[in-house]
Amino acid sequence: MSSLATRYQVFVAYAYSLYPKEDYRKVFTEIEANYPVSFIFADEKITNMHIMQKIISYIKSSTFSVFDISGWNANVTLELGFAMATSENWYIAHNPKHTPTEEVPSDIRGIDRIQYTSLTELAGKLLALMDQRFPKITPRGNISDHIESMQTDLITLLRRSPGMKIAEIADILKVDVKLAQVVVAPLIGELLESTGTRKGTRYYLKGMTPK
């Protein structure tokens, strides 16, 4: 079981001019509620260090860093270069709507990246990364509280990635399929809809089922 007292720092760099601050950072705030991780941005703490010194200290002290190169911002590029030279703990995010892939230098273009075209898609891919790197926070309390917590997680998940099979839901919630079915069953009809039969059944939030 993970404790809220044990949290891992992740540094995030992106071009502030591309997105409204509240919209972009809300993606990370929601993830913090479910994983033992704290995201830090360069403008959130006032220090007596030069800005680049501060960023270098954040990169060095973080479990890993995420560099969103959308817009091919010069500052983010410089920070990514430092991380590439000094650490293996970094990931690249990229929205090709803001920067066509061909505008990214070829030595960066070939690196695996978190590619997204909306903040909803970015959230979904970051959640997948969190599942790889960190244990999910397990709520304390009785089993009913635990199931209610997982149902809340499921609703959030289906807003971002509609049309999920029960095995996919179980994998993301980190439970077996039978418990995932217990989580899903009370929601069907009231909050969820399904399509398909047996192993092909997919679950959607009401109103999000494809026509």
Model description:
There is one protein chain. Strand 6 and strand 7 form a beta hairpin. The protein has helices at 21-32, 51-61, 74-86, 106-109, 119-133, 143-160, 166-173, 177-184, and strands at residues 8-13, 37-40, 64-68, 90-94, 114-115, 192-195, 202-205. Residues 1-5 have low confidence and may be disordered. Helix 1 (21-32) packs parallel to helix 5 (119-133) and helix 7 crosses helix 8 (177-184). It has a five-stranded parallel β-sheet, sandwiched between helices. Strands 6-7 form a two-stranded antiparallel ribbon. The longest helix is centred in the C-terminal third of the chain and has 18 residues, at 143-160. It contains eight helices and seven strands, in the order E-H-E-H-E-H-E-H-E-H-H-H-H-E-E.
